[in-house]
Amino acid sequence: MSSRFALSLLAVATAAAISSCGSTETPAAAPVAAVPVASAPAASTPAAPALSITDPWVKTAKKGMTAAFGTLVNNSGADITVVSGASPLSPMIELHEVVESDGKMVMQPKKGGFVIPAGGTHELTPGGDHIMIMDAKQPVEPGAEIPFTLTLADGGTFEFTALGKDFAGAKEDYQPGMDMGGESDNG
Ligand SMILES: [Cu+2]
Question: Which of 11, 29, 31, 91 is the most exposed place for a label (fewest CB within 10 A)?
C-alpha cells in the first residue's frame, strides 16, 4: 500500500520534472517554495518577537550572584540580538560569556550581546553564555519562578519565567578588575 503511494508520488514528481524541463518559460527562481518563516502569530500578541526559550532555569542561591540558563530559539527569518536583561530578582543583570584567561575560565560581559541566528538557537549553559544575576535580593529556591525580560536590539522585549534549580557546577571566576562590591560566595 505504501509502496503504491510512493510510486504515485514518484510519478507525479517525474511528470512535474518533465513538464518543467519542457517549458522554456520556466523562471529561474528556485523551485523550492520560499515560504516566509516569519508569519506573524495572532494580532493579539502585539509586536511579539519571534523568540522563545526552552527550559529556562536559574541556579538556586541564597543571595548575591547566580545565573539563568536555557536555549534561546529564533523562530524568525532574521537574526535576533539580545542586548540586555532585567528581572525583579536583581537590579543588576548582565549578559555574560565564559572565556579562558591565563588558563582559568572567567566570565565577563559579552560584547554585542547574544545573537540568535535566523531559524537557529543560542544556548545559555553553565560554562558558556548565561544571564548573570549580579546581586540577587532574595533567595532562589528550587522551583521558584523568576520572571525575566530581555531587551532586543530592535527595541522589542521578550519575557519569560525561569525555574529555580539546584546546580553544583559553573564555578567560573569573574574577570579581574570587576568590582563586585564585596565578597560573594558563588556556590
Ligand atoms: Cu556570569
Answer: 29
- Please tell me the distance between residue 91's alpha carbon and the centre of ligand 1 in angstroms: 15
Domains (ranges, CATH) in the chain? 51-165 (2.60.40.1890)
Which residue is it, cell 543571595?
63
Residue 86: the pLDDT is 98
Report pLDDT for 168: 81
| 22 CA to centre of ligand 1 in angstroms | 61
Q: Which three cell numbers stand for residue 44?
A: 493579539
- 141 C-alpha vs ligand 1 centroid, how far in Å? 19
Q: Which residue stretches of the chain have pLDDT < 70?
A: 1-49, 169-187
148 touches 87 (CB < 8 A):
yes
Residue 70 — left, alpha, or beta (φ > 0 → left; ψ -120 to 50 → alpha)?
Answer: left
